[in-house]
Specification:
Elements: E1 6-10, H1 15-24, E2 31-35, H2 39-51, H3 56-61, H4 67-75, E3 77-80, H5 83-87, E4 92-95, H6 101-114, E5 120-123, H7 130-134, E6 143-147, E7 157-162, H8 168-180, E8 184-189, H9 196-212, H10 218-228, H11 235-241, H12 245-259, H13 267-274, H14 291-298
Parallel strand pairs: 1-2, 1-4, 2-3, 4-5, 5-6, 7-8
Antiparallel strand pairs: 6-7
């Protein structure tokens, strides 16, 4: 059993953040606070948590939750744009903001100013070394890495990253909490991209290069990996439907910077990114859509 009862999620209005909140609500009696400086982001996260594709109301409709369970979960969620209010009693703070080093530094510093000394921090980075993130903190030992996978409330794996300064007690507490909500944490040592991002980004980049070179289109590649490899989603479906292309792009840039040119962003990916096609408009309203839409728009008109 663990002592985590107050959980705060920084960036809880995002695609991953609201899924993490859904997962954390499985801890009996745990209260979950979504924290973001942007009110509209919080409102979007709350809508996804309640009515989204994996939301609480969908759980009731599918018979996974009864009405009393759903109401209990909803009653344990709070939203705030005030870090002092949201983190005042936090035991565990999950960071789930964009995969940009300066952005993560800023929210972790804000968290350290607002959270009590007992609070443990867990960065949701998919690529940035925990040592780099912990370096801005007065107490780097309270930070560990937790790399979740989409959808965060469904996928059992969480890559648990032990930073150079991460205290064993912090790692143990986060491990115990994750296990208590049905996750299967696997511990790895700190390094750029850890294991999963370096592995996944390689095959995504190669799929993009094959589209770039005309070997096959996104639809064909997606059909092959689903039919031939048994994946539940195709490569480009994953990038589009989960709005994760932006996160993949930033992670790939970081991996090239830290691990060398084998992680260079393919020119077509750079073109798509700079054109603003960052993912599904259903899940990310500011986006213009994803790969399928971009390639259709880029085709010469007859």
């Amino acid at each position: 059993m663990n002592d985590v009862k107050q959980v705060a999620i920084l960036g809880g209005g995002g695609i991953m953040g609201h899924g993490m909140a859904l997962a954390c609500l499985r801890a009996p009696g745990a209260e979950v606070t979504l924290v973001s400086h942007r009110k509209e982001s919080l409102e979007h996260g709350a809508e996804l948590l309640r009515d989204g594709p994996f939301g609480i109301e969908r759980g009731v409709t599918r018979g996974k939750l009864d009405r009393a369970q759903a109401d209990d979960m909803l009653s344990r969620v709070r939203l705030t744009t005030d870090y002092d209010e949201g983190l005042a009693d936090a035991d565990l703070v999950f960071e789930s903001v964009p995969e940009v080093r300066d952005t993560k530094h800023a929210v972790l510093l804000a968290a350290e100013r607002s959270a009590p000394e007992k609070a443990i921090f867990a960065s949701g980075t998919s690529s940035i070394m925990i040592a780099e993130l912990a370096g801005v903190l007065a107490d780097p030992g309270r930070l560990v890495g937790t790399h979740w996978f989409y959808p965060a409330n469904v996928m059992p794996l969480v890559e648990l990253v032990r930073g150079q300064h991460s205290r064993p007690a912090a790692v143990e507490t986060v491990t115990g909490f994750l296990q208590s909500i049905g996750k299967k944490p696997v511990a790895v040592q700190d390094g750029p991209g850890f294991f999963m991002t370096r592995f996944i980004n390689t095959y995504i980049a190669e799929a993009i290069r094959m589209v770039e070179q005309g070997v096959a289109g996104p639809a064909e590649i997606d059909r092959m990996v689903k039919t031939g490899l048994g994946w539940p989603m195709g490569v480009f479906e994953l990038l589009d439907d989960t709005a994760c292309f932006e996160a993949w792009y930033h992670a790939q840039e970081y991996l090239r910077e830290t691990c060398g040119d084998r992680y260079t962003v393919p020119p077509l990916a750079r073109k798509v990114f700079l054109a603003g096609y960052l993912g599904s408009p259903k899940l990310k309203p500011a986006s213009r859509g994803g790969w399928y839409e971009f390639l259709d728009a880029a085709r010469p008109q007859s």
